[in-house]
UniProtKB/TrEMBL annotation:
<feature type="transmembrane region" description="Helical">
    <location>
        <begin position="12"/>
        <end position="31"/>
    </location>
</feature>
<dbReference type="Pfam" id="PF04531">
    <property type="entry name" value="Phage_holin_1"/>
</dbReference>
<feature type="transmembrane region" description="Helical">
    <location>
        <begin position="51"/>
        <end position="68"/>
    </location>
</feature>
<keyword id="KW-0812">Transmembrane</keyword>
<protein>
    <submittedName>
        <fullName>Phage holin</fullName>
    </submittedName>
</protein>
<keyword id="KW-0472">Membrane</keyword>
<dbReference type="InterPro" id="IPR006485">
    <property type="entry name" value="Phage-like_holin"/>
</dbReference>
<keyword id="KW-1133">Transmembrane helix</keyword>
Amino acid sequence: MINWKVRFKNPVFYVQLGISIMAPIFAYLGITAKDITTWDSFFDIFKQALSNPYILCLIATSIYNAVVDPTTQGIGDSKRAISYNNPVK
């Protein structure tokens, strides 16, 4: 079991998810900051990514790696992490 409530309260989790989605797309398509100068170009990049099964698999793998806690057995959080109500500071 994963403590989603606490993860959604942690801004770092959103950064991890954003990087997990964007990094594979930008790397595979060879995108740089110069290529994203308009919203149209930004959305066009994501349309290309959604039509490519390989990129979607890269994104799924990247999200999996961002969500799973490697310090526990399986894909869930530890019993201690499950008991949290807020992220530990």
